[in-house]
User: Fold this.
Amino acid sequence: MKLLVLGSKGQLGRCLNDQLDSSDYNIIYTSREQIDIGAIKATKSQILEIKPDVVINATAYTAVDKAEEEPEKSALINHLAVANIADTCSQLGCWLVHVSSDYVFDGASRVAYIEEDKTNPIGVYGDTKLKGEKAIQSSGCRHIIIRTAWVFSEYGNNFLKTMLRLGAKRSEIGIVGDQVGCPTYAQDIAKAIKVILESLKTKEVSSCLYHFSGNFCCSWAEFAQAIFDQAVELQIITSKPNILTITTKEFPTLAKRPVRSELSSNKIRSTFGIDPSDYMLGIRSSLMAIKNARY
Assistant:
């Protein structure tokens, strides 16, 4: 089976490389320098030339606040480019595995979101991600869409890496405590995709949308505390900074964030046997990789 991974230098792309390294798939990894999905015609031509059996779209416009200032750019990458990839996959008859976001919801639910819940994005980023999902679903291509949340790992720029940087410099850090979500280890997303790929190869699989996220719901402040606790234990930092829990109003941002965006992973578990990401183990694995400079 030939796989085309778009966004190979990003956080998820690098984790896919790790998880698929020992597989027998014919894998073509491409970075933005090789396939810029924003170049619509060129991308279509390149995918048609490669003729993959599965396209994994691990690239996205993820700058949530900047999207408010650059709505056209966010729409190009998260919606129009995704629609183009889906149409190309439909033309080839190949699968598309696409990663979406919890930001398609408004965060008003007091219980975990399931796939059938009504979407209502409250910012440009979430709106463009939702339009990308809908474009895939209306394209007719065979697809698996995975909504995830609060992604972190040893790679790239993410909340865990930011906390380590700030924790090494400051004795006190203000962290938002009234936004709640499920931190998800990017290596676990890659592992989930690997399981799904095996199913595509061996079973009858229907196009569908799934939620996959961490196994525990917490605030950003609680997430930060867990990172610092383990970072001190692993001697990555010498002491924990004091976490000052602040409100969203005290930390204004350009984009509104969902107040509570817990995702239920029950559907992906029942369909593929994939358990939610163990976020505490993910923190430790990320920190160990950083400490050992394995990447």
Q: What stands out?
A: The chain has a mean pLDDT of 96.
